[in-house]
Amino acid sequence: MRTTRHAVAVTLGALTGAALGIAGTSLALWSDTVTVTGRLSTGHEYFAVGAPGATVPAPTGSAPFTVGPDHAAELVRDGAIAVPIEVDSLSQGNKGLHYTVTPPASWGENVFGAAQVSIFPVGSVEACHVDADIPTDVDLASTPVPATYTSDTEATTELWCLLAAYDGPPQVGEYTNTATVTATDPSGTEVDDEDRWDAVVVRELDPAAEQEHEITFTYETFRPGEER
């Protein structure tokens, strides 16, 4: 996964204010008493998840990314969707930051439940498309910030891709019907004919009734020697 850095649109002083809950920004201030030679182990952590350029800070140690009826409608219409997800991470001082990605335990029994859904890291927004190659072995975790001292105010940005393919509603049965016709021809001979047709019975799926599915991004910080 390629990581990039971008500036969080606040100054270091504003970070302190945001950590205290000012202006509605969810930035957490942490401090501990671990002795680190030449450095103070005090700093700020920031974790946000969302659509590229529109991430939302995590209010606690995790942040959800949701797909629902609109995505399901697009999936039924086009047969496949690719949804990029941006993750922004910042941890100052001597603490690193590690996070895991947890898909829903079940995609339900509607459209997403009938689709093939994959989540994997990508190097750019453009790399998240319906024809993207799906990795065979995906580690649903990342450590964007190592446990080395930093006072950076720029977040590290990583990107993930949710790719779903839909081949139509699942088959739940088959139906066969046979019709036979018997008649007498002009010579008085009895004749008959038979016709048969088959149908596949599929489950009725409604994109508008799709439930909200949460992909959960959970982060934690760690000290030197506790690398993930």
CATH topology of the largest domain: Immunoglobulin-like
For the CA atoms, what is the radius of gyration?
A: 27 Å
* Secondary structure category: mainly beta
Q: Helix proportion of residues, in percent?
A: under 10%
Look at the structure and give the mean pLDDT: 79
Show unreliable segments: 5-42
Q: What attributes does this structure have?
A:
four-stranded antiparallel sheet; 228 residues; mainly beta; Immunoglobulin-like; 2 helices
Structure, explained:
This protein has helices at residues 12-19, 69-78, and strands spanning 4-7, 28-31, 42-51, 54-57, 62-67, 80-91, 96-102, 116-122, 141-145, 154-165, 171-184, 190-202, 213-222. The protein has 228 residues and is mainly beta. The chain folds into two domains: 4-169 and 205-222, Immunoglobulin-like; 173-202, no CATH class. The strands form three sheets. Strands 1, 2, 3, 4, 6, 8 and 10 form a seven-stranded antiparallel sheet that branches. Strands 5-13-7-9 form a four-stranded antiparallel sheet. The longest helix has 10 residues, at 69-78. It is rod-shaped. The two termini are 16 Å apart.
What can be said about this structure in brief?
The chain is mainly β and 228 residues long.
What's the structural blueprint in terms of helices and strands?
Blueprint: E1 4-7, H1 12-19, E2 28-31, E3 42-51, E4 54-57, E5 62-67, H2 69-78, E6 80-91, E7 96-102, E8 116-122, E9 141-145, E10 154-165, E11 171-184, E12 190-202, E13 213-222
Antiparallel strand pairs: 1-10, 2-3, 3-4, 3-6, 5-13, 6-10, 7-9, 7-13, 8-10, 11-12
